[in-house]
Amino acid sequence: MWPPADAVAVDVGGVYERLAGVGLEYGPVFQGVRAAWRRGDEVFAEVALGEEQRAEAGRFGLHPALLDAALHTAALGGDDSEEDSSRPGPGLPFVWSGVSLYATGADTLRVRLAPAGPDAVSLLVADTTGAPVASVASLVTRTVTPEQLRATRNVTHDALFHTTWREVPAQDEAPATAGRWALLGSVAQHLDALSGADDTTYPELAELSQAMNDGAAAADTVLVSFEADSGARAGDPAEARRMTHCALRLVREWLGEERFAGSRLVVVTRGAVAAVSGEGVPDVAAAAVWGLVRSAQAEHPDRFVLVDVDDVSLSSGVLRAALGCGEPQVAVRSGDVLVPRLARAVASAA
């Protein structure tokens, strides 16, 4: 039965004024609470999207404005006749546990909130027929004071960052930190006069491992190239899948072989990142490989290096400089070594 027969109606006319009074000011898109009832510590409510937002409900598993409105009903808990002076500010979502989504595209919801521990609530969400839409076993909130909320308005203008590429200062001598090099597959096509590399180019990592098993000296640096097939269409999803599967297999083999524990795997790509102004990303498949290897770098520091090159052949000196700068990600453009850095985003007038 909706609403529950023993639930008492709550006036929702001032809910958003009440939230604004503690520092949470919601615009019209997010003011979705339509009706509410209370039964002890439980709160029942109906929330809905505005007319303009209903058309886009199907784009989401659960429209963010609708989910947010469901959480606003927490402000209806407690006794309206008493001002709770012990609570310094509103509780904002902090830790979600046991989240399940059962249906998509809803534009109106029936919501039940109930206590689920200290500073936590459980959430049951259904559509207007009573069919389940979502549930949250526990949502822990963290209290934020109105002063803290007001303070955030003064810092958001410089809180956004973007990636920029900066040139590594030239060194008097090219660093010789790469030690003994070995090449895999077709990486040699990127290189020009690479002195110090192993004379043998190994087709796969397994052949290098076997050579080491047969007595070959361990390589300090192993280079491998990932570049889309020349016949592949630019941005072809199939090519991106093929290359990322190959990269994933190589990363697993590299991490699973103890012989390579003291070595670095240098992944060379061409056109996988936009490192200079006006530059695009012509090899989208190689960009996907960058994303995969960056994840591996996060889990296994110092085991991988990413080097993206342009159409200029990569000389031994430039490669040594790229590897010797100690950066996990490097781009080489016209012989210059660039590394990524965070810079504050400058907002436009709009």
SSE topology:
Elements: E1 8-10, H1 15-21, E2 33-39, E3 42-48, H2 51-54, H3 64-72, E4 91-101, E5 108-115, E6 120-126, E7 132-143, H4 146-152, E8 161-167, E9 181-184, E10 191-192, E11 197-202, H5 205-213, E12 221-226, H6 237-256, E13 264-270, H7 284-299, E14 304-309, E15 314-315, H8 316-324, E16 329-333, E17 336-344
Helix pairs in contact: 6-7
Give structural attributes.
350 residues; alpha/beta; Thiol Ester Dehydrase, Chain A; 2 domains; eight-stranded mixed beta sheet; 8 helices; 23% helix; elongated
What would a concise description of this structure say?
This protein has 350 residues and is of the alpha/beta class.
Describe the model.
This protein is an alpha/beta fold and 350 residues long. It folds into two domains: 8-154, Thiol Ester Dehydrase, Chain A; 164-344, Rossmann fold. It contains eight helices and 17 strands. The protein has helices at 15-21, 51-54, 64-72, 146-152, 205-213, 237-256, 284-299, 316-324; strands at residues 8-10, 33-39, 42-48, 91-101, 108-115, 120-126, 132-143, 161-167, 181-184, 191-192, 197-202, 221-226, 264-270, 304-309, 314-315, 329-333, 336-344. The strands form three sheets. Strands 8-17-16-14-13-12-9-11 form an eight-stranded mixed beta sheet. β13, α7 (284-299) and β14 (304-309) form a beta-alpha-beta unit. α6 (237-256) packs parallel to α7 (284-299). Residues 79-87, 172-176 and 193-198 have low confidence and may be disordered.
